[in-house]
Design goal:
It comes from Sinimarinibacterium flocculans. The protein has 467 residues and is α/β, with parallel strands linked by helices. The chain contains 13 helices and 17 strands. It is flat, with a radius of gyration of 27 Å.
């Protein structure tokens, strides 16, 4: 069964209405630059989002300014219109504080011509009656507006329930394939050898490979068997810094790459041993880790490097990618085929780790051993107690820990627990996710009703106190 395509929500509107703030709220990140400056966003920004166990993607666009002659504004509008072509739902964002403007009306006319399903979002409505904040915008004729505050988060859950209604449900723990096929996404910067790697694994020149960055434009899936197990390799377009991405086709390729990451069981992140490991590599792998995907790092073009150069490359990997200490590293040559056996062994281990079923008894036992070895710190004289744990999902594996005052656990102790779980269950290549829940006091708010005998005893004691 093929994985469901993630729904795509596109944010549009004139500049400075809060689209980037809403993008950050939906994706739970600070990826979009936010400032009180019209036209700050020029390029499209893609992000992954999750709401009520459903996954989707969000696109932040530059402001639409129909009356502007600024060349950069025109380019930003072109990028926004490309995003609209991809949209499953359009969120037209307006400003409650500024009220209805001629630019809003002009944008509404353009969106109405498209015939796509859209929702009118009245932002910056904090501290206002929602009906009053939305009153002016009924004149646009785009249906019932929904008032929110992207900055405060007010009204956002209701907005998402309305927008996502009717779109395909891609649940947070939905498995991309149920027939045993392992989906492996091959990602990295342009010209690091991704297509060459896929061809070498297949044993044939199935994909076009050349020493020209950007040869691959789409995410291409290829099925093959390795060691008796079915695999689906997804060769993706190289991801470059946004400042260098202008062509519309390449923009769409980046969406495909992000969707491939979301739908994969394991991601093979390829870097070039003969080039510097840069910020873009770290950002891409940080995104993979953030999405909880099992990952294997492949350092390509390893053949022919001198010993001192190899040591320098190993040092650069540990220096610039310290957050990938859980991900195994394979040093390979896609062109000559060296190291590919070890790479596929790591992929198999990562798949088994991300799909592993953990019993509540096993997980709780590891938690108890971890607490016995290293107690949680005390808070205001009260010791934090961790009582039991259970598995909360797979791909990525998620463990839910129950106790009291868990919200006060320091980050260092949470990392300690994650490492203990990872070591105990021999999890390879997965960023183990921990959730903490504080149980309610069952006696909170309940009055202790005394028996007749207890009441007599209390009166007797009180009489002695008075004497």
């Amino acid at each position: 069964m093929q994985a469901a395509k993630l729904p795509l929500l596109v944010l549009v509107g004139r500049p400075n209405v809060g689209k980037s703030t809403l993008f950050n709220r939906l994706t739970d990140t600070r990826d979009a630059l936010v400032a009180d400056l019209p036209g700050l966003t020029r390029d499209r920004q893609y992000g992954s989002a999750r709401f009520e166990n459903r996954r989707f993607m969000v696109v932040d666009t530059g402001g639409l300014m129909p009356e502007s002659r600024d060349p950069l504004a025109v380019l930003a509008e072109d990028q926004a219109r490309m995003a609209l072509e991809e949209a499953d739902r359009i969120l037209f964002v307006v400003d409650a504080q500024a009220g209805l403007t001629p630019s809003d009306a002009a944008i509404a006319r353009e969106l109405r011509k498209r015939g796509q399903e859209l929702t009118l979002v009245v932002n910056k409505a904090e501290g206002r009656d929602r009906d009053t904040a939305s009153a002016d915008f009924h004149a646009l004729g785009l249906g019932e507006p929904i008032a929110i505050s992207a900055e405060k988060g007010q009204g956002v859950p209701a907005l998402l329930r309305r927008v996502l209604d009717g779109l395909p449900v891609v649940e947070d723990d939905e498995l991309p394939d149920e027939d045993g096929t392992v989906r492996v996404a091959i990602v990295g910067r342009p010209n690091v050898g991704k297509s060459t790697l896929v061809n070498r694994l297949l044993g044939e020149d199935r994909l076009l490979a050349a020493d020209v960055p950007g040869t691959t434009r789409d995410a291409i899936s290829v099925d093959f068997d390795y060691d008796g197990r079915p695999y689906r390799l997804i060769d993706t377009a190289g991801v470059r810094r946004r400042a260098r991405v202008w062509e519309g086709v390449e923009k769409i390729s980046i969406v495909k790459t992000l969707q491939a990451i979301e739908q994969a069981h394991v991601v093979v992140a390829v870097v070039d041993a003969r080039a510097d490991i840069g910020e873009q590599d770290a950002r891409l792998m940080g995104l993979i880790a953030q999405r909880g995907r099992a990952m294997v790092l492949a350092v390509n073009k390893w053949d022919g490097l001198a010993g001192d150069v190899r040591e320098q490359v190993r040092y650069q990997v540990s220096l610039k990618l310290p957050f990938l200490d859980y991900a195994p590293t394979a040093f390979i040559s896609a062109r000559h085929g060296s190291g590919l056996g070890e790479l596929m062994d790591f992929v198999q281990q990562a798949y088994e780790s991300t799909m592993r079923e953990l019993s509540t008894g096993e997980v709780t036992r590891v938690l108890e051993q971890a607490v016995e070895s290293h107690q949680p710190p005390a808070v205001l004289g009260r010791r934090i107690k961790l009582r039991y744990a259970h598995q909360g999902g797979r791909n990525p594996p998620r463990i839910v820990v129950h106790g009291n005052q868990t919200e006060k656990l320091p980050a260092a102790y949470k990392r300690y627990l994650a490492n203990r779980f990872r070591d105990a269950f021999k999890l390879v290549g997965v960023p183990l996710l921990l959730s903490f829940k504080t149980g309610d006091n069952p006696y909170k708010g309940k009055k202790n009703v005394l028996s007749a005998r207890q009441i007599k005893k209390k009166r007797r004691l009180m009489s002695h106190v008075k004497r």
